[in-house]
Design goal:
41% strand, 3-stranded antiparallel β-sheet, mainly beta, Immunoglobulin-like
Length: 111
């Protein structure tokens, strides 16, 4: 069986994070955020993803995994621009380990 490279990377990130936070998973805090896709308009070739955090956005960061090997980590901005068409996985997390936030993966599509 052949594995999708994107899924393999997502699982690897989640497994590594789980191992490094062993025993803390039950105590982690839920991240209140709502990502929003801004689709390309007219002749625009790219879209963007806006992250609307509830609470102090300084406590959060994100990673974005996309088509054709796209990967961006340690995203501190509330908007990621220049995204080509395809499916993306946005993984929201606490900026510091001692914040103890749960990982929040979200699937998004730029059309």
């Amino acid at each position: 069986m052949r594995c999708n490279g994107k899924l393999s990377l997502i699982f690897l990130v989640l497994i590594c994070f789980s191992i490094s936070h062993e025993g803390k998973a039950q105590k982690c805090k839920f991240i209140e955020a709502s990502p929003e896709v801004v689709q390309p308009i007219g002749t625009q070739a790219t879209g963007s993803i806006k992250i609307n955090y509830q609470g102090n956005q300084q406590e959060f960061k994100a990673a974005l995994i996309g088509p054709k090997g796209y990967f961006k980590k340690d995203i501190l901005d509330i908007e990621v621009t220049g995204l080509k068409k395809g499916m993306y996985t946005l993984v929201l997390m606490g900026r510091k380990e001692d914040h103890e936030y749960c990982l929040k993966p979200v699937e998004l599509t730029i059309r």
